[in-house]
Every structure is written in C-alpha cells, then in structure tokens.
Amino acid sequence: MLSREVLISSRKSIAVRLLPSQDLKLALEAICVEHELLAAAIVSAVGSLNGAVLRTGSGAFKQMDGPLEIVSLSGILSTNGIHVHTSVATESGETFGGHLLYGCIINTTVEIVIQNLSDEFVFDRIYDAQTGYKELSIRKTVDS
What we know:
single chain, seven-stranded antiparallel sheet, mainly beta, CATH 3.30.1330.80, 60% strand
C-alpha cells in the first residue's frame, strides 16, 4: 500500500493526497487496483514534481528536471489501463505537456480528485492497428 491519505465518498468519488518520492503513474495505477476502478476520470489535480518524463504527440520523449508545478492533469483511469496527460511548468513558467510516463516523481504533494464511473461503464484498452497504441474501448456495465 502506498503512503497517502485517502477519502472515499460513497464509492463515486476518491480524494487522495500523494506524498513525496512516489512515481505519479505508478500511484495512479495502484489506486485503480486498490479501489477496483473499472472506469474513472481525473476531475481535479494539483501538485509538484521533482522531474517529469512525458511523451509528446510526435512520439518523442521529453525528460525534465524539477522542481515542476503540475498545471494540468487529466485522463481516463481503469484497472485495464490508464491514459493520462499532464502539463508542467518550470520555475521560469515555461510549460510542457504530453502523455504521463513512469518517472514523474512527486516533489511535495499531488492532490487528486477522481470520479468513479464503474457503476455505469467499463473502460478497456484494445490495440488499434491504425494508431499503433492500445486505445479506449467503452462498454456499459451489465447492471446499467
């Protein structure tokens, strides 16, 4: 279990504060498993990183040293895979964004609110030959 504080409200919302030295992507994947999130979305997130590793739209990798402020973090979460984008700003305010990769290490904190949609949907990741990536596949839950 990760070192963090968690508040769960009626299984529909999860508020979490992640602590220094955690890998942000690993932490998000662990939250999905721990809370059995079949479908969820990041509603809000703020925090800082010691460093970031991002993949740009061109497929290039951008590695940055911190401290960096998270100015946006959004994405789809599921035990079947996550797809998260982030933008981070340097001390001078220069901003970079892309796909969140492993190696984004939390500096002081990351505070996240997650909306659990698992009562209605299941998000899967299925390889798409056209894009070359595992892309989102959405289905309704049996009960909805």
